[in-house]
Amino acid sequence: MKKLKLLKMYMAGNTKLYLLSWLSIVIHVALAALIPLLIAFYLDHIIGGLAIDSSTAAFSLSSRLLEFFRDNGSGMILPAIIGLTLLQGLFLFLRGKLTALAAENSSRRLRNSLYRHIMHQPYDFQSKTQTGDLVQRCTSDIETVQSFMSSHGSEAVSIVFQIMLVLVIMIQISPLYTLISTALIPLIFFLTIRFFLSMMKIFLAADEAEGELSSALQENLTGVRVVKAFAAQQLEIDKFTEKNSTHRDKVMLILKLMSRFWSTSDFLCMIQFAAVIAAGAWGALNGMITIGTMIAFSTYAGMLIWPVRGLGQMMGFMGQAFVALERIQEIFDYPVEDDETGTIDIKIAGDIVFENVSFAYGDGEKVLDDISLHIPAGRTTAILGATGSGKSTLVHLLLRLYDYQSGSIKLDGTELSTINRRYLREQIGLVLQEPFLFSRNLAENISLGRASASEQEIMEAAAKASVHDAIRGFERGYGTIVGERGVTLSGGQRQRIAIARTLFRAPSVLIFDDSLSAVDSQTDASIRAALQRDRRNVTTLIISHRITTLAEADQILVLDKGRIVQQGNHDELISSDGLYKTVWELQSKTDDETIDSIISV
Amino acid sequence: MMIEEQEFSKKIDFKVWKRLLGFSKPYRSLMIWLVAQMIFAGLFDAVVPLFSKYAVDNIVLASRPDRLILMSIVAVLLIAAQAVNVRYMVLRAGKIEAWLPYDIRQNAFDHLQKLSLSYYDVTPVGWIMARLTSDCRRLGQTMSWNLVDLFWSGFMMLITAIFMLILDWRMALLVLVTIPLLVWISFVFQQKILHNYRQVRKYNSHITAGFNEGITGARTIKTLAAEQEMADGFGKTTSQMRNFSVRAATTAALYTPLVLMLGAIATGLVLWSGGIRMNQTGIMGMTYGTLAAFVSYAVQFFEPVRQFARVFTELNYAQASAERIFALTDTVPAISDSEQAINIYGKQEGEEGKAEWPAFAGNIEFENVSFGYENGECVLENFNLKIKAGETIALVGETGSGKTTIANLACRFYEPNQGQIRVDGIDYRDFPVMWMYSQLGYVLQEPHLFSGTIRENITYGRSDVSQEELESAARTAGAHEFIMHMDNGYDSEAGERGNRLSAGQKQLVSFARAILSNPVLFVLDEATSSVDTQTEHQIQQALSRVLEGRTSLIIAHRLSTVRHADRILVIDNGIIAEQGSHSELLKKRGYYWRLYTNQIVKGSLTE
User: Fold this and answer.
1) Out of B231, B272, B517, whose CB is closest to A119?
2) What is the pLDDT of residues A528-585, one digit of tens each?
3) B 57-116 residues inside an 8 A Cβ radius of A
4) Which domains does chain B possess?
């Protein structure tokens, strides 16, 4: 029942195509089975001159048609065979084309909806899942299902129908010989299924060994500097050798088992085949069957034995496909984040008021504890705090990446939790500390999917982020491909591209989550100056460790363990003891004694 | 930039195959066995239709029931022989399939460890990965199963043709007439099909990349509210994939019907002329059994032809794979032991010769060093610098000014194009490469950790570390405390690339790692950029202890880090613009002073 549901999920929207493809499979198989019949008839009744009896008539051709064949003799055989083959070929082609079309459509639909589903997951989705595993589900699992649906599945349909058809014909000709010709077939079938089901685990283990091999390789290649600097080549070679030989042994194990299976099943199949011929010869000798029947039976036995073994293999694949489908379904079972509801009916200027806001991740400790503050519109507010003090969480709440659990946050007078998430994120630009660049060119990274973006706008955003000149310096300028498959940028360059990307979207509120840490202080200053010049009235929040950055803000908040411990401007904060003053002194004083005295306090 | 590489070679290059055969030397007897077994299997397959013929002609029509038992015994024996043959054939081919890629991979990996950074600068990791995974796998399959298929199909075609000619040469010619056409169609289609298949794989890798990016970049996408745009972009990729796949499947779906038609024509011809001749007697007459056997030969002929065409095309791809792997293993390491070094210290394999290596005091001298990267950009010209043993040198300057290059040259990750770098007064090219590397402690801006435990990461590259040494290094780096707070202490997993640790924690671990290696030359490349101010201060404190008595090079943006250096060098466009101690440089009121005052609050220093 559950499996049917999974299958329905996969086939949704393409049911008609699947039905059509299965229809062409059935027609093709029927036509293919007709041809040996025709040959047998020809050998028996036209060349052999036997009378047409009831068993022949049962081939479902009308006796008048058979007589016509017989009377017109050998002249008809060529066009008849060619005509039938032509028809058979046509349906074979349709079968290939339609199954591919249906399976490809399904896969495309599934891929797109998986992607969308992942895009609309809540912010903490990543911490709940493993990227590698997720990617594998989205790619190889879909491929497994697809290859099953497009080749193995349709093959299975065709084999099942072929077996039924051939069995019906054989039984009509001779029930006894049918029994002899199929005696070993159930054994072959179950042996094969059992084998391939038991192999699934071993295949998986081999895949995993290969995955580990590539991870080891990748780690070595990306860490090549460290390997060299620690003269650890030999250690790395040893590590790699271990993975490499594990993988080799897993492959060898598969082939060992395979060799046992193929030889055993080959033996059984061929013995069955030999039995058909021997029994046929014996029957023909005793006049129980005709020579034509004997030859037809050996053909039919061939149409049964090998396909049945194939079917067993298909059942193994089917098991795999259902496991894959289940793994895909598990992704769909994660609920998506709601970004449809909520008001979009406010003009955001950036006046933000926190009132007694508390927040904890899951059941953990409070990360924000009873926070009340006012961020005035159009001003710059800076936040200082140690790692884990709750700075990032505070700004994450503003984009509704997480929802606060108690208290109230008002954005321009509207309760934040009633505002549409997507709208909010379009209006509030957050630059993350570790920016992610996409594998595309720089212009596309800055405009990110906005087709309407003009070159002018992109360059302006880049200029404001002080990265225009650096981009110009690249051989391909804005066309330079970055990201995983492109040029490697320095940390500072990446951060500046990320800033340009956010500025390009012209948000009403700008948040820098320690996103200037990797640029030097001069560049930092020039970026901030450009922002000042350009849009004096943008509400800006800056999280930073850099005192020069903090000092210029209209308001500075100092966070410690989820609470605001200090608040004020630079001059106010350096006149009272606290974290801000400590950091300021650390970063500005030159003589060692002062520093030591600060630290020892 | 995606590297669009050549997927297959048009021309057969015998040199490549000769080298490949060289690689398969250990498996040569296996391969010969395999070919012999293949011939037996081919013979067996070709003999099968003869059984039907024998049963019809020599048993049924001849009314000789006694022969039935004889035939059955022969058949069972042959079948048993074939089953054993199949068993060992799969084993032998499997052995090659598993071991040959292992050998090639191992060889390539060993070589990779010898290549210098200049190679890694210009070669994308993905490219190397593909060489050692899919290309190696393909070669393994080629030298085992493709070999099997090639010989089987070639032999099958030959023997089937011979059997038919022996049975009845006139009728055989009738069937063989269709063969050239069959071969031609097969080659055209198999090439097309395989090419399409590769294309589909390529599209598929775009889809994988798309998912990978969408998942790892999900947070970024969310903060930019760009879900829709990203999904639309991805939708284009999946549509391309679908359209191309369907087109490829359509081409493939055409092939079998065409071959069937040819088969049908051959079968029809055999039956038709056979029918006429059955009614005749004498030389033109033919037996019932022969006719039946002919029909099965005619039908069976197309399978080996298809195989042959497919394998032949596969070989083109395999050759390209081999060429790419050889390109990797043929790359000469830009930095390797000079003849001079080998003469003095012998050939170095790993760290075996370590005992005979001289001690390194830590004096480094750049004399008229010029250096440029492979892309042609000249970074240093006639650069001179003398670093005394135990001296702490700080390098400051803008991105791209050449700071990292100087450090890389000092470490011998690169060698000067012109000029000399002397360590303790001797050109470092006269020493083994590993000698220099084993003296280094190196901490990078983005710390690279390996999967495995924290312990394994700190003791990286050393096997003989006691718990005390380990803890003392971690304490010095300020990492001990957070490590002890982890679930399994030093045996906690760091995660893939250390991703279970925060950026700052990773840096502390990599710092401990460098301390533990007890280096003579210590290099910190922007090592404190990603940690917060207090952690940085902790590291500062540790540094003063660690750097005691060592030569060190510190590259930093944060000037608080460089303040304590014995000498600060301001690097501008590959030259030393200013140098001196912190206070000396501040007095100069030059570049360093500007840089410094910019970093501190206005008014705090200018008085």
Assistant:
1) B231
2) 888 777 666 789 999 987 787 888 889 999 988 889 998 998 888 888 888 888 877 7
3) 59-61, 63, 65, 68, 71-72, 75-76, 79-80, 82-84, 86-91, 93-95, 97-99, 101-102, 105-106, 109-110, 112-114
4) 14-330 (1.20.1560.10), 360-439+565-607 (3.40.50.300)
